[in-house]
Write the C-alpha cells for this entry.
Amino acid sequence: MSYLSRAFGGALCSFVGLLLTVTVRFALNVHWGLVHILLSGAAFVALLLEIDILWVVLGGALISISATKAPRVPAGTRPAETQSLAIPDYQRGR
C-alpha cells in the first residue's frame, strides 16, 4: 500500500468522524416533536428504498413547510430574541 493511498484513507476516516460528530450535535439541538420524528423516519426509509435524494429533500421541505407552523408574533411586538438586543431606555437619552 503506497503512502498516498494511506493518506487518502486517513483523510476519509477523519471526514467520516467529522460528519458523525456534526450529525450527533445537530440531532441533540433539534426540538424533536412527532412531526420531526415522522419526517426524519420517512426520509430515512425513502433513502433506503433508493429514491433520488433530490426528491427526498424537496418532499421533506414541502412537508416541513406545510406541517410545521412558525410562532406568530402580535403586531407591534418584537420576538424574544431581539428584545435582549434592544438598547435600554437610559442609553437612548430618555
About this structure: The CA atoms of residues 47 and 53 lie 7 Å apart. Residues 3-29 form the longest helix (27 residues). The two ends are 74 Å apart (CA to CA).
